Amino acid sequence: MGAVGGAIWHGIKGFRNSPYGERRIGAITAIKSRAPVLGGNFGVWGGLFNTYDCAVKGIRKKEDPWNAIIAGFFTGGSLAVRGGYKSMRNGAISCAILLAVIEGVGVAFNRMMAENMKHEAPPLPPSQPSEPSGGVAVAA
Questions:
Q1: What is the pTM of this model?
Q2: Which residues have CB under 8 Å from 48's CB, separation 6+?
Q3: Rg (CA), the chain
Q4: Around Cβ 33, how many Cβ atoms within 10 Å?
C-alpha cells in the first residue's frame, strides 16, 4: 500500500515540479527514487504496529479499541527513538491520538450502521417443523 500510494503521490509531485518538456521523465524519476522509501517506511510502521497490537491483546486478554490506541502509542515512540526523549514522547502521543481518532470514527460508524439496522423490517420468525402425519407430535 505504501509503495502504491508513494508512486501516486511522488508521481504527481515529480510531474508538477518538472519543467514543461520533461514532466513525464520527472514523474518517473521521482517515483523510482521515492516510492520505495515510502513503501518501506509504511511496512516498518505496519510491522511494529501489528507486533505491539498482538502483544497488547495478549497481555490485556481483551479485544477493544484501546488495544490499537496503546499499540499506536508504542509504535510512535519506537519510531522516534533516535530523536531522543522529547521526540519519543511527541511521536508516541501523536500516533496514539491518530489511532484514537481512527478507532473513534470506526466505533461511530458501527453505531450508525446498528441504528440503521434497527429501522429496517424485523426478520421473519423461523419456520416451525411440520408435524408428522396423523397429527401426533413426537418427542425427541
A1: 0.69
A2: 74, 75, 78, 79
A3: 26
A4: 11
Q: Which residues of 80-96 are buried (b: 16+ CB within 10 A; e: fewer)?
A: beeeeeeebeebbeebb
| Geometric angle at alpha carbon 63, from 88 and 112, rounded to 5° | 100
**What three-state secondary structure class fits 52?**
helix
Longest CA pairwise span in the chain (Å): 90
Helix (H) or strand (E) holding 44: helix 23-60
pLDDT digits (tens, 9 = 90+) for 97-121: 999 999 999 999 998 888 777 666 6
Whole-angstrom distance, CA of residue 53 vs CA of residue 70: 8
CA–CA dist 56, 52 (Å, integer): 6
Give the integer Cα–Cα distance in Å for 95 and 86.
14
Segment holding 115, helix H or strand E: helix 85-118
Q: b/e map of 115-126 (b: 16 or more CB within 10 Å)? A: eeeeeeeeeeee
Within 10 A of 101 (CB to CB), how many other CB atoms are there? 11
- Predicted confidence (pLDDT) per residue in 40-57, tens digit: 888 999 999 999 999 999
